[in-house]
């Protein structure tokens, strides 16, 4: 059945109203006097009101989807996929809504593809920098450390004391380089798996920030592919960093659990909460990584997290795609 376009519906309604008014004037015992009588004025004004109300109602119903399209256009976020408008009826407006939904589908696909390329390029660059820091800077500093040790063994006081101080400074710098290498490319993730990598991350984070980190890890997680494990690790890393830098938290709880269908990472702190603050580059980066593996990222501030603040809870829900052997 072919639907009637909005144009012809409005035209038909106007034709019916005007035709009824004309018939009323032709066959009804109603005349227009000069000056106009009160009853005649009431009939004319009543007919005008009926026509205006009917037109307004039809336009309201017919153009309501356009208002919904306008509102969604101003609020749509491609990092939160799945926002669609219902398509009702037919005609030009329904076609416009369908085209808008299709456009969102294409834009989300293109955004996901471009984000995947950018993230993969970023990880490749991190891997290269970590390798160079380890092979070149790390080895050079190790050589300097050995040379200082030999010189301090042969030197006399007070030069030996100065060489020992330089040796400690160099050793501290070497430890910092190694820590940067682990942040850029966590080797423990490749060698020992996701649980060990997140455990090491939480321990290192607690040591360097002084925050109390509580770990709740399920030992029976399904085996995941390398890309999925890296996304979970990066989201945990960014969540802990945000808790230390912005949340003013004293306690952070990191949970990792799952079943045969999903793996869930949760990071909850007892800080001041995210509130209505605008998401920064860190949170949007986490959303882009979630899209890369088809995961869902939820960020909110439940009141029950802390007695002194609302806190922030971040949950990453990942489809449990088994690692291929």
Automatic annotation (TrEMBL):
Gene Ontology molecular-function annotations:
kinase activity
Looking up InterPro entries in the UniProt record yields: HAMP_dom, HATPase_C_sf, HATPase_dom, Sensor_HK_TwoCompSys, Sig_transdc_His_kin_sub3_dim/P
What compartments host this protein? Membrane
* SMART domains given in the database record: HAMP, HATPase_c
* Catalysed reactions listed for this entry: ATP + protein L-histidine = ADP + protein N-phospho-L-histidine
Q: Where is the HAMP domain?
A: 60-112
TM spans, by residue?
7-29, 41-63
User: Primary place of residence?
Assistant: membrane
* Identification of the protein by name: histidine kinase
Upper taxonomic lineage: Bacteria, Bacillati, Actinomycetota, Actinomycetes, Kitasatosporales
> EC class of this enzyme?
transferase
Organism domain of life: Bacteria
Per the UniProt record, which EC number(s) apply here? 2.7.13.3
Coiled-coil ranges per UniProt: none
- Alphabetic keyword roster: ATP-binding, Kinase, Membrane, Nucleotide-binding, Phosphoprotein, Transferase, Transmembrane, Transmembrane helix, Two-component regulatory system
